[in-house]
């Protein structure tokens, strides 16, 4: 009796383990995202090459009162995050439409290429030519465009040109997935 019970338990463990392995397998499609949709993304031409990312796409608003930070982010996939885009705009009283750049706001826009090189909207020849435009803000989405040169920190020669940048991102509050607005 004890041997039969042990055999049943071992069989159940093997079946459970098999189901877990099979259910954890999924496609490594760079268009998949945590939202179950490819309608949220960040895309642009980087030196003329089309780059589009949608995994974990988000416009995350953190903070409260007159000290809010907006983080825009999307990557390729969980198993291969590069390339990806990220942007932090800090010290906002409200998340509103408008033009943002490193010279007029506390902002850092970055692009990480497939070789893990990081390009940011750092000063280039005494100016900050990179521009991000937020064109629409609702309680559930943030949309906009961006363009301009990005460079490797400490280098004036390692530059990529971003053109036709566009994003449509789900808006979250204080943590990924939280759609309840905060003050």
What does this structure look like?
The chain has about 180 residues and is mostly beta strands. Helices cover about 15% and strands about 45% of the residues. It is built from one helix and eleven strands, in the order αβββββββββββ. It has one helix spanning about 1-25, and strands at about 40-45, 50-55, 55-65, 65-75, 85-90, 100, 105-110, 120, 130-135, 140-150, 160-175. Strands 1, 2, 3, 4, 5, 6, 7, 8, 9, 10 and 11 form an eleven-stranded mixed sheet that branches. Strand 9 (about 130-135) and strand 10 (about 140-150) form a beta hairpin. The longest helix is centred in the N-terminal third of the chain and has 23 residues, at about 1-25. The protein is globular. The chain starts with a helix and ends in a 10-residue tail after the last strand.
Order of helices and strands: HEEEEEEEEEEE
- Helices, by number, come to 1
Number of DSSP strands?
11
* Helix/sheet category: mainly beta
Distance between the termini: 63 Å
Q: Please give the share of residues in helix.
A: 10-25%
Low-pLDDT stretches are 1-37
Q: Please state the average pLDDT score.
A: 80
- Rounded to the nearest angstrom, the radius of gyration is 21 Å
Strand proportion, as a percent range, falls in: over 45%
| Backbone shape | globular
Largest sheet: 11 strands, mixed
